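Hey, resending since the last one bounced:
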Amino acid sequence: AKLVAEFDGQPTVAIIKHTNPCGVGRGNSLAEAYNKAFATDNVSPFGGIITMNKPVDAETANTIHSIFTEVLIAPEFSEEALEILTKKRDRRLITVNYMKLKDSLANDVRSVAGGFLVQNTDTYLADESKLKVVTKRQPTEQEMQAMKFAWIVCKHVKSNSIVYTASDRTLAIGAGQMSRVDSSR
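The structure tokens again:
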């Protein structure tokens, strides 16, 4: 839920598997955003978690319903969406207030051997006025949008993150490899 909370405005969907995003997409509708996220990896979403930053309607519910998804998180679900999504057993539907979630992210608490680790949550979003291009060729506006998209997704991928994106979707995500070269492959 933290990942899609960072995408204000346009409908955004993140598919999460084993605490890592395996696909993220933005679109004019949640169904379009889901299809973009699913296209990143059409195997891993089975049994995963889908988080959405807009209310789920019947079109989105029908799109998602085709594969088994264990948890769906959204600000709300329409009556039609609930009727569709509750047909599968063992599916959990969770509503979240993203404004309250963003406000409550001051600390990140993790259990560690013998206790807890408490650290500030990474809520940093790049200040565009402070970005500096250090390459000879300036990025196009579309490339800059893709980099901003990747920046947000990458900080939610655990360990040696590699994220390839377009301006509105992930193309590939590599996570958890000991080597970034292997993760990139």
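Residues 45 and 89 are 17 Å apart (CA to CA).

Sorry for the duplicate.
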